[in-house]
Amino acid sequence: MSALPKTEKPPLKPPAFIPLPLGAVRPAGWLTDQLRVQAEGLGGHIEEVWPDLGPDSAWLGGEGEGWERGPYYLDGLVPLAHLLDDPVLKERAAKWMDWTLDHQQEDGWLGPVQAAKTDWFERRAFDIWPVTVMLKALTQHHEATNDARVIPAMTRFCEWLRDHLDEHPLHEWGAYRWADLVISLHWLYNRTGLPWLLDVASKAHDQGYDWRAHFEDFQFPDKMKREDCELKTHVVNNAMAVKTPGVWYAQSGDALDKASVYKTLETLDTHHGSVTGVFTGDEHYAGKDPSQGTELCAVVEYMFSLELLLSILGDAAFADRLERIAYNALPATFTPDMWAHQYDQQVNQVLCTVADRQWTNNGPESNVYGLEPNYGCCTANMHQGWPKLVANMWMATPDGGLAALVYGPCEVNASLENFTIKLAVETDYPFGETVTVRVDSSGGFPLRFRIPGWTSGATATVNGEAVAISDNPFITIERDWSEGDRVELCFPMSIQTETRYHDAVAVVRGPLVYSLRIGEEFRKIKGKEPAADWECHPTTAWNYGLLIDQQNPASSFKIDDDRTIGPIPFDPSATPVTLRAKGRRLPGWKLVQHSAGPLPQSPTESDAPLEDLALVPYGSTNLRVTEFPVLVT
C-alpha cells in the first residue's frame, strides 16, 4: 500500500480530507457480500461474455475496440480486485496494466492510437479522453501495488501533453470532461512536484468547456427536444461536471469556483432532480417527471464526483447525497445478482420492455436488463460504483486522524505519517440506525464522525460513556485510544416525506428511499444465460395513490425490520426493512408510451377500496412506484 501524501503541494489548496490509498479501507459485512456479488456477476466475468473487453481489445494489443471501454472497465476492476484481495481479479487487472505500461510509445503516448474515422462522433487519432480514464486506473493501481512503472509512465505521457496539446487539443468528450484529466495531473504533481504539470492542467482548463458559465446562466430548464441535444446537455457529461469547479478550485483558489459547485447542484436539482439524488437524462436533460430515465453511467460518475468533492471541500452534505445515490439508484439499476443492468432507470418504473418510450433520444431497449442495452458505455463503466464507494468511506484528516464520511461495514488499516490506525466498523446501515466502530490500535489521535443531515437526536458513546453532539455535521473525538475501545453511534431514522413532481410524495427513512413493491416476471428476450437480456413485466397493480398524514408522516406507516441482510443485500424477495402503508387504486392513471403515464396532480381522489401496501427500499426493486399521488383524506 502506498504511503499517504501529507497534503496537496503548494500552490494547490490543501484538501479538507485526504483520500486514503486504495486498500486502506476494505469492505466487511454486507458490503463484502455486495462486492462479491459484483465479482461473481458481470464485474468478474465480463471478459468472458463481451467481445469489447475480450482478448482482441486494442488495450491488450488486439484489433478490437480501443477507445474508452477498456479504461472504463479498469477504473472499476482495479479497485474491485484489490478491495476483495481476489487473486484471479488482481491477475486479470495486472494483465491490462502490464500491456499499457509495457507498450508506451517512444514519444510518451499511452495506449492505442485511434483509427481516424467518423461514426457518431469523430475519432481523432490522438484522442486524449480514453487515456484520461486509463490514468485514473493507473493511479489506483499504483496506490494498491506500488508499481514502480506508473509514475514514470504517467510523467512521460504528461510530457506528451505539454508538448502536443496545442497540436492535439481536447475535443468533444475530452473537452467536456477535462476535470478528469486535471485530477490525474494533480495526483502526479503531489508525488513529483514537477511545476509544469500545473501548466498542463491550466491548458486543459482553457481548452475545456466552461461549466461554471453553463450553470451561472442555465439555459435548459425543461426536458430537451431531440433536435436540440448537445454534449453540454448530456447526462454523463453533467454528472462529471458536478466535480469540475471543485477540482479546479484546488488549483485556482477562486471562491467563485467553490461557489459554482453549489450552484451546479442546486440547478440540476431544481430543473431535473429526482428523489434518489441524481438527475434525469435519457440521454440528455429530461425534466422532473419520474417516468423519465437516468443513465447508469451518470449514477456512478455522480458518485465519483461527490467522493472527490468530499475530499476537496469537506461538506458533509456531499456524503448525505452520496449515500442517497449509492444505496438507492446504484443497486436499483442492476438485477440483484449483477449479471444484467439497465441503461436507463426510472423512479416510477412499472414496465421494462423493448418499446419506444418518452426518452429524450435513447432507444427502445434502454430500460430492459441486459448485457449491453442501448449502448455499451455503461457495460464498461458501471464497475466503479461499489468499490470506489468503499474506498472513500474513510479519509485522513489534516490533524493526523481519520474521518468517517460514509457509513457501512468496513475495516480500515491506514498508515499515516508516523503510525497506523486500525478500525473495524460493524453495522447494518443503511438498513439499521446503529454503527459500532472498534478501535484496534493504541495511541493518541482524533477520530471524526459525520452526523447525517437527515437525522435528529443522534447519540455517540465511547466505551458506554456519552459524547456530546453539537449541531456541527461532524463530531471529533480525540483521546488516547486503547485497543478494543468502542464508539457506538446511533442515527435515529424517522420516516419523512419529500414533495416531488405534481405535488406527489416520496417516502424516505434515513438514507433509503422507499418504493411500492410490485410483483414481477422476468422474460428472457435474447442472449445466453447468465449474461442474457430480460424484460420485466408487472404481475400486480402499480397505479396507487398513497393515504398519508403529511403533518405526521410516520403515523401513516408501520415498520417491519425484523429480517437480517442476506447474501444478496438488495434481493427484492428478502428486504431487511419494509414499510406498511395504505392506498387506493387510481384507475385513470394508466400506461402511456409503455411507462407510467402523467402523474396525477396531488391531492387526488379515488373511490377504489383501501388496500394494504408494502414499500421496500428503492435499491431492492426492479419495478416500482416511488413518487406517489397523495389521496385526499
Summarize the structure.
With 633 residues, this protein is an alpha+beta fold. It has a domain at 394-490: Sandwich (Maltose phosphorylase, domain 3).
Describe this structure in words.
This protein has 633 residues and is α+β, with helices and mostly antiparallel strands. The chain has a domain at 394-490: Maltose phosphorylase, domain 3 (Sandwich). The chain has a 7-stranded antiparallel β-sheet. Strands 17, 18, 19, 22, 23, 24 and 27 form a 7-stranded antiparallel β-sheet that branches. A 5-stranded mixed β-sheet has the order 1-7-8-12-15, with no helix packed on it.
Set down the secondary structure blueprint.
Blueprint: E1 18-19, E2 25-27, H1 29-40, H2 42-49, H3 69-84, H4 87-102, E3 117-118, E4 122-123, H5 128-145, H6 150-164, H7 172-176, H8 178-192, H9 196-207, H10 211-216, H11 235-241, H12 244-252, H13 255-272, E5 293-295, H14 296-313, H15 316-332, E6 344-346, H16 377-381, H17 385-391, E7 394-396, E8 402-404, E9 410-415, E10 420-427, E11 434-439, E12 443-450, E13 459-462, E14 465-467, E15 474-481, E16 486-490, E17 495-499, E18 505-509, E19 512-516, E20 520-526, E21 533-538, E22 544-547, E23 558-560, E24 578-585, E25 591-592, E26 595-596, E27 610-617
Parallel strand pairs: 8-12
Antiparallel strand pairs: 1-7, 2-9, 3-4, 5-6, 7-8, 9-10, 10-11, 11-16, 12-15, 13-14, 13-16, 17-18, 18-19, 19-27, 20-21, 22-24, 23-24, 24-27, 25-26
